[in-house]
Amino acid sequence: MEYMQLNNGIKIPALGYGLFMVDPLKSEEYVSLAIETGYRLIDTAQIYNNEEGVGNAVKKSGIKRDEFFIVSKIWHTNAGFDEALKSIDLSLKKLQTDYIDLMLIHMPYNDYYSIYKALETAYKKGIVRSIGISNFDTGRYIDIIYHSEIKPVINQVETHVFNQQKDLQKAMQEYGTLIMAWAPFAEGKNDFFNNSILKSIGEKYNKSAAQIALRFLIQSGIIARPKTVNIKRMKENFNVFDFILSCEDMKLINSLDTKKAVIGDFSDIEYNKYVLEIKM
Ligand SMILES: NC(=O)c1ccc[n+]([C@@H]2O[C@H](COP(=O)([O-])OP(=O)(O)OC[C@H]3O[C@@H](n4cnc5c(N)ncnc54)[C@H](OP(=O)(O)O)[C@@H]3O)[C@@H](O)[C@H]2O)c1
Questions:
Q1: Count: domains in the chain
Q2: Which of 17, 30, 39, 48 is catalytic?
Q3: What single-letter DSSP state applies at residue 106?
Q4: Under 8 Å CB-to-CB from 247, ≥6 apart: which residues?
Q5: Which DSSP symbol is given to 55?
Q6: DSSP string of 157-204?
Q7: 141 an active-site residue?
């Protein structure tokens, strides 16, 4: 495993396991398999309704809590300082832990300043070890920087070879905020796993398109955490630390960047409405 350093000095694994759309009833089983495979960064969210499964798997693993890096996110319907703090307490209960390694504002909707204030309070109390945001574009990012005391360590945004987020990454560099990629495989869209550039580079290293895509993110300073409920693919996605992409490979993959979201287009009113209407 490789690690990156957050702007508060905490070490974070460069690769994790994500649980979006993972059946709450099966989440414990899949997280247990992920832990057996070697994953220690686990990404869940209040809205995924599978924090409990994560907590069970971590507890039953017998591995020391401090070897894990647990990420969760506050949904926008939990806005309001008191509500957000209460929701953190509930996440702690479901995750069966005294602290969450990284807690994010899931979406830049509703009164997210109040959520951020709650996160700062939770950070000072030590019940979250680091705080951040998700789906904040450059404008909203700099706004939260100007109106916060503790700078976000992470902005979790849709990031993959087709949407490399270079401008956002550059803008956040000054404050040390890293990108954590969501949908590192663009959820398989645009025939992701058969992309000819990824596949031809993969042939050189005896790796799949998926492994090349993950390696590209990690070498770009981006934390990746793909989702899979397939044990073979869990192992495949984890096996990306025994090779290094050359500068030429990196440049070639850079050429795939369209600078456009494939899944979550926040400039599309209908997409925003769709997300706003998802209730806990
Ligand atoms: N902050 C946010 O707003 C936000 C939004 C979306 C997602 N996320 C987070 O990001 C994580 C990952 O994103 P995502 O789940 O949307 O999409 P993703 O990781 O880009 O893609 C997941 C899809 O790829 C398939 N897959 C996984 N590994 C594969 C491989 N090696 N070869 C072929 N197919 C493979 C999976 O199918 P199988 O399961 O059948 O293998 C699944 O259909 C989520 O789980 C969640 O934790 C966050």
A1: 1
A2: 48
A3: -
A4: none
A5: H
A6: EE-BTTB--HHHHHHHHTTTPEEEEESTTGGGGGGGGG-HHHHHHHHH
A7: no
- pLDDT band at residue 23 using 50, 70 and 90 as cut-offs: confident
| DSSP summary character for residue 48 | G
Q: Is the CB of 132 under 6 A from ligand 1?
A: no
- Residue type at 108 in one-letter notation: P
Q: Which domain holds residue 235?
A: 3-276
- Does residue 20 have its Cβ closer than 6 Å to ligand 1? yes
State the Rg of the chain over Cα. 18
pTM of the model: 0.95
Mean pLDDT score, 135-155: 97
Angle at 182 between CA 53 and CA 168, to 5 degrees: 145
* Spatial distance between the Cα atoms of 245 and 272, rounded to a whole number of angstroms: 36
Asked if residues 112 and 98 have their Cβ atoms less than 8 Å apart, the reply is no
- Domain of 154: which CATH number? 3.20.20.100
Q: Is 253:216 a contact under the CB 8 Å cutoff?
A: yes
